[in-house]
Amino acid sequence: MTGSKKSIYAALFANLIIAITKFLAGGISNSSSMIAEGIHSVVDTVNQLLLLMGITLSKKKPDRYHPLGYGKELYFWSFVVSILIFGLGGGVSVYQGIIHIIHPEELGDPTWSYAVLAVSILFEGASLVVAAIEFNKLRDGLSWWDAIIKSKDPSTFLVLFEDTAAVAGLFIVLIGLYLGHALDAPYLDGVASLLVGILLIAVSLILARESRSLLMGEGIKLSTKKRIRQIVEGDAGVLKLMHLMSSYQSPEEILLMIIVAFKHDQNTLEINDSIDRIRGQIKAEYARIRFVIIQPDVIEGRIDPNVQAYI
């Protein structure tokens, strides 16, 4: 989580400085796309704060009301961030763009806008490099897209997507501003704002999809399931693993629930010993599996009703 915080702090600092300068330049040059970019930076700044809050809240200790802890706080606030990008970032930019295409305004002096765009690209680019370096450490040989899809820590890929969209948006605004002045076509400034909005909406939909999947209880990967089956069915007291269910409570915490059919000739003490062995081996191999619930079951015959599920 340290790496993700590093990229978040870098993005927070960059977006805060850039938002102020964009609004100033947009007001001076009368550029709707620059104002849209300013709104984009404000939204990104708020997003970084929400992610930091989500990380902090997810670290709260379990209590009587949340016995499994507060890990899903991070997933919830990551989903909120994706909605903000869609509504405040993409929605406002699209609205601004349409208004200025229908009613184009005379463009002012673009000098300040060019200066701010250059500085913004520098800061956003630096933030993107930090986010990319930190995420690259987590890829573990996967392609960038596969690593994003399989990542269980939205704070890492959210910042990466935000910074990528920010840099792309800045170049769109730069091209729109230049063409608008070169061709004496003020409506192109609105077109640039519209394109930035569409870009942000596309990014927000991807992020919302990934965050929602985690929030709804995404489980462990197939290879891990196969290994757990080997561990369970390799125990001397087990007949068969009947069911396996899992859910990420946070990027570092997994809840595992398995239903196991034990051999019929075992008594209560022997079954409990098997449960202890299985639970111990699973936790020894997978540090992220913090909660292991093992429920005895039968294929035929009966299991002693005094055997209790273990956590």
UniProtKB/TrEMBL annotation:
Q: Spell out the Gene3D superfamilies in the cross-references.
A: Cation efflux protein transmembrane domain (1.20.1510.10)
Residues spanning the membrane: 7-28, 34-53, 74-102, 114-135, 156-179, 191-208
Q: What is this protein called?
A: Cation diffusion facilitator family transporter
Q: Does the keyword Transferase apply?
A: no
Q: Where is the Cation efflux protein transmembrane domain?
A: 9-216
* Record's subcellular location: Membrane
Membrane topology annotation: Multi-pass membrane protein
**Record-linked PANTHER family:** HUEL-CATION TRANSPORTER (PTHR13414), PROTON-COUPLED ZINC ANTIPORTER SLC30A9, MITOCHONDRIAL (PTHR13414:SF9)
- Which domain of life does the UniProt lineage start with? Bacteria
Q: Does the keyword Glycoprotein apply?
A: no
Q: Which InterPro entries match?
A: Cation_efflux (IPR002524), Cation_efflux_TM (IPR058533), Cation_efflux_TMD_sf (IPR027469), SLC30A9 (IPR040177)
